[in-house]
Amino acid sequence: MAPRQGSGEIASKLNSPANDGAPAEASNEISGWTYPGLDYSTFRLVLVAKAIDRLTLKMLSDNCDLTIAEWRVLSRLAPAENGATVREISQMAWVDRAEVSRAAASLEAGGLTSRRPNPSDGRSPILFITDEGMKLYRKLLPIRAEFHRALAADLTDAERSLLDDLLSRIARKVARLAGDQPD
Q1: Strand locations in 3-161, DSSP E?
Q2: At 145, which CATH number?
Q3: Distance from CA of residue 54 to its chain's centroid?
Q4: Residues 146, 72: Cα–Cα separation, whole Å
Q5: How far apart are CA 120 and CA 123, in angstroms?
Q6: What distance lies between CA 146 and its chain's CA centroid?
Q7: Domain around 109
Q8: Rounded to the nearest 5 degrees, what angle is found at the Cα of 117, between the Cα atoms of 112 and 118?
Q9: Quick check: is 9 in a domain?
Q10: Mind listing the pLDDT tens digit for each residue in 78-124?
Q11: CA of 34: how far to CAs of 21, 42, 51, 112, 170, in Å?
Q12: Does residue 105 lie within any of the structural domains?
């Protein structure tokens, strides 16, 4: 499928100088960044995640007909040589099983994934990416990689490492609170 008009718009915005290391006070100029009663870094993390989802949706609509949920499933299945169950994908993607199930059914209807019986559990089929699905994944992966690289391009290596560490610590706590990880 050919890219739709505007497919390079996000990439060009990402690669243009943004803040040039502007001080943190400049963050007050971002609409909705501070909000009475919700002045928490984790609240701002949610804002950033939602904005990234909107940009991801635009990238997907510019390059294919996948939803974010379908991309999440496809991108988790691609490296899984032995396939994965809905439960495994939901754990890898941090989303609920119903979302994965709906996306998997849509991907299967589009010929991008297939399912096989699970010899260990007849109620839980194993999902696999098809050749057509892998072709689409390989088309989108470099676009996604560049997107994420560009988002952090203004950070030093030390800042990226610190950001990863801080996000990991918050993620572990969220996983524990959600019951996805032991204490």
Answers
A1: 113-116, 126-129
A2: 1.10.10.10
A3: 11
A4: 17
A5: 9
A6: 13
A7: 40-151
A8: 110
A9: no
A10: 999 999 999 999 999 989 999 999 999 999 999 999 999 999 988 99
A11: 20, 12, 15, 42, 20
A12: yes
